[in-house]
Design a protein that fits this description.
This protein folds into 2 domains: 165 residues, 3-Layer(bba) Sandwich (FAD/NAD(P)-binding domain); 136 residues, D-Amino Acid Oxidase, Chain A, domain 2. Helices cover 33% and strands 25% of the residues. Strand 22 and strand 23 form a beta hairpin. The radius of gyration is 21 Å and the shape is globular. The chain starts with a strand and ends with a strand. The mean pLDDT is 96.
């Protein structure tokens, strides 16, 4: 049996950032991080868009708003200190019709409340930034949005963890809880405190602890279609006005850290947690549970799920996806977008009692452990200040308080 002061389940960006913060506050503590895969960044932390968001989408009372702006700045310092790659390309948000112009104004209001620099500019001004952009009347410019390489950044964070004496145990999946012990296929761990940052599996682990019982993870598949235009063909990220009633930002253009252009992502309901392609990661029991939830949502059309699902499934067709994106940019040609990128899965929390998707970070915990149930986008951008917040909650839990928090 291995013993430790803190056992973190999940070596994604939230788990590793929290491990570093716990080590900073408790230099003598033994901290172990369990990761089921044999390599880091095999799921959300390595398959995300690579965008460092600025923080203007979110209502001022949300945890997302609290952490995204600061997280953007913290990542940039981290990247500069280590000589990692970053593309400070910014973002233009465009309106496809008059109704969406008011959406731009709402995003500007939110940005102002969150202390995030944004500018409402004319289409003429926007075309000085990106000559090909299309919009009606106004465009929102976000100068602090940037793109990075998530896998490169994850490797640097892991290196920092190891330098601080944090043990990252690869190929060591959580299997079950037995009293205060955590079981894996190889070893048993006895931890003073357990942190569940397991992403796609966070709900299952929390349920083993008797927490988060009203919640389940619903997976959504994100696909990107890569362009063959030369690097530099697009100068900045181009986004539509999103439907702020759901957590998805819509099909957009991302300029990668290398300057390559990609269209996406989709938000297609997946049938199991690791439903990346084909039958990869298939689990019958898990699939039956998830498909049952999705079927009920489809039939009842809760939060407009049926419309969302039918629209997203169409995006499996490359011509349709390209046509959607062409509303944002001039000169988009079908023949330039033919290569699918590495799929990702969004671990989206679903509140089955309230019958809605949970829009903000969600935690539950007690004296035994803390469970990060919803580390939804922009968790990558927000990871560092979010880790400090989580460490604050852990200190409160050590004092015997219980936690059930949805921001």
């Amino acid at each position: 049996m291995k013993t430790c002061d803190y056992l973190v389940i999940g070596a994604g960006i939230v788990g590793l950032s929290l491990a570093l913060e716990l080590k900073r506050r408790n230099p003598g503590a033994r901290i172990l991080v369990l990761e089921k895969e044999r390599e880091l960044a095999q799921h959300g932390s390595g398959r995300n868009s690579g965008v460092l968001h600025a923080g203007f989408y979110y209502t001022a009372d949300s945890l997302k708003a609290r952490f995204t702006r600061e997280g953007n700045a913290r990542w940039k310092r981290f990247i500069e200190e280590r000589g990692l790659r970053i593309n400070r390309c910014g973002k233009l948000v465009v309106a496809k019709n008059e109704q969406e112009v008011e959406g731009l104004r709402e995003l500007k209001r939110r940005g102002d409340l969150n202390g995030v620099e944004t500018h409402l500019i004319s289409l003429e001004e926007a075309r000085r930034i990106e000559p090909r952009v299309k919009s009606v009347e106004l465009v929102l410019w976000s100068p602090h949005t940037a793109t990075v390489d998530p896998k490169e950044c994850m490797a640097a964070v892991a290196e920092e963890c190891r330098a601080q004496g944090i043990e990252i145990l690869l190929g060591t999946p959580y299997r079950a809880r037995r009293g205060s012990d955590i079981l894996t296929p190889k070893e048993v761990f006895s931890a003073g405190f357990v942190v569940n940052a397991a992403g796609l599996y966070a709900d299952r682990i929390a349920h083993d602890f008797g927490l988060g019982l009203r919640y389940r993870i619903l997976p959504f598949k994100g696909l990107y279609l890569y362009g063959s235009e030369p690097k530099g063909a697009l100068r900045t990220n181009i986004y539509p006005v999103p439907d702020l009633r759901n957590p998805f930002l819509g099909v957009h253009f991302t300029v990668t850290v290398e300057g390559q252009v990609k269209i996406g992502p989709t938000a297609i309901p997946a049938f199991w947690r690791e439903h990346y392609q084909g039958l990869q990661g298939f689990n019958l029991r898990e699939a039956l549970s998830i498909v049952w939830d999705e079927a009920l949502l489809f039939l009842r059309n809760d939060f407009n799920f049926r419309t969302l699902a039918l629209e997203e499934v169409k995006k499996y067709a490359q011509p349709y996806l390209v046509a959607q994106a062409s509303a944002l940019l001039e000169g988009v040609r079908r023949e330039n977008f033919r290569t699918w990128g590495r799929p990702g899965i969004r671990a989206q929390l679903y509140d089955h009692q309230a019958r809605r998707l949970v829009m903000d970070f969600t935690l539950e915990g007690n004296a035994e452990g803390l469970h990060v149930l919803n580390a939804v986008s922009p968790a990558w951008t927000a990871a560092m200040p979010f880790a400090e917040y989580l460490a604050d909650q852990i200190e409160s839990l050590h004092k015997g308080r219980e936690l059930s928090l949805q921001g």
